[in-house]
Each structure stands twice: as C-alpha cells, then as structure tokens.
Amino acid sequence: MTTMQAPNAVVMVRPHNFCSNPETSGDNAFQTTDASPDIAKTALREFDHAVATLRRAGVIVHVFDDTSTDTPDSVFPNNWFSTHAGGHVAIYPMFAQNRRLERRYDIIEMLKRDYRVQDVIDFSGLEADDLALEGTGAMVLDHIERVAYTVQSNRADPVLLERFCTHFNYEPIAFEARDANGHAVYHTNVMMGIGTNYALICLDMIVDPCRRTVITERLEQSGRQVIDLSRDQIAHFAGNALELSGTHRILALSSRALDALRPDQITTIETSAQPIPLSIPTIETAGGSVRCMLAGIHLTHRNPRIS
C-alpha cells in the first residue's frame, strides 16, 4: 500500500565510527554526551536491529556502510539528499563542516541504477556562500499538498528554501519555533512529522500564534487529523517519525518516542498506520532519532516486482 507520503524504500547508512558530533552541539539542544568506550559498537547493534525490523515489516532498505572516521553523523542521511516523485533528486548544502563529508555519490549512482531518475539538482555548492538547507531535517515535506514546513534556523537559509520550493514545486511555510528553554529548534523534523492521514506536531513550540493557527488550519484542510504533541513528548523524539509503506502502512519511530505518546494519540495513528518502534537510545544521543536515519525513496523502481 504505497502512498505519495509513505515511501516503500529507504536509504540507511551504517555508522562504524558513531559519536555525538562536537560541530553540531552548539545549536542542537537534543544532543547529549555519551562517553561510553563501546558507543560505536552499541550504535551498530541498534542500527542493524532497526534495519532488520523495517525489513520484516516489508520496507525495502538499502544499506551503505560508512568507513570514514570524520563523519560522526553519517547515520542521518536524510539531511544531505532527498528524492521526489517524477524522478527528481536534490543534494543539499550542510551547515557543519564535517557533515559536508557525508555526501555519497555511490548512493546517488545506486538511485540512478535501481530507480527512474530524471534529474539531480545539486545545491551543495552554495556552502561556499555559507548557505545551508539540510534536506528533510530542515524541511518537513507534505508531498501530497506540496508544502514545505520549515523552522527558521541556520540550517535552513530562506533564500535557498525559496529556490528549492520554486524548482521542486512546493509552497514554503516558514516559522520560528523554540523549546521549553527558549532554544531555537534546529530541525523541523524533531517537532513535526506528516503522515497520509495525520500530522504529528508540537503547536506550543511555534512562537507566533498567528503562524500557529495558519499551520493548524493548513494541516486540517489537507484532511489530516492533527496530533498535538507536548514539549516533553518532543524531548523524547515523538515528532521524529516517518510513515512508510511495507506489507502495510507503518509509522517508524523510536521506542522512546512511542512510550511518550498517549494512548489516544496512538489510537489515532493506528487508524492509518501501525507504529513500529525501533530501540536506538545510543543513536539518539547524537540529537536525532528514527526519522533522521531514514532517507525515503519517492522514486519509481526500475523492477516493478520489487516496487
């Protein structure tokens, strides 16, 4: 049951040298420090279990091994590329210097080989101008209504957002969002996720009340049920989830995130998708969760028996 919003395939990058990235800790309030000497091995075990769980649910998972010692955030590939129906791929400029090393053109070549790719638009050269737009971390895309919800931050330059939206035919809806401590939210996808029939979002984190109303109405007008998350639920990554299509429609999220949801919220999700929890507490110390680990493939597979 594939839908435009819920891809049936993802790219994941297996992190061999995982750690919390010192270059991103300045603006990522979700990061914590884990000094365990076995942190990399533990992250690998969490990653492999997550891949196995998704594959059992019928999701196609393309795994690439990271061999660099200079890319601690490689496990989060959704920030440097995205794919779009009609055969379009975007490559993005990253804010942190060491995150720019995550771009893997063997992944792009795999997409060209296995899927129907019409064009690849590479925005990464704009890093030289200190511009960043960190993919589907910076933008939460409503693929059905063609809207790019984007928190204002140094990870989402407004000029580049407009350029992306013009080229890929999305309407930008940018807004300011802050956590309970007043810190600016660094990525939109930690506070918001859009499924086919519902949307997860922390409305309280949207600073401007008028903007909050506009976003709520826009989501409701799309026919989705708005699941309003609390700030505490966001702190447990409840908004960092991705709807996927496998043997049936699922919502991939972390075990910690699922535990933070109320029973009524889970019931609302279950009317459309089955929550599939993935246990990744070590990986979450890097300041991202399940959605960040999944680069959805919204392309047509060249082999119809697989897609």
UniProtKB/TrEMBL annotation:
Q: Which Pfam families match?
A: DDAH_eukar
Q: What is this protein called?
A: Amidinotransferase
- Origin organism is Shimia abyssi
> What taxonomic classification does the UniProt entry list for its organism?
Bacteria, Pseudomonadati, Pseudomonadota, Alphaproteobacteria, Rhodobacterales
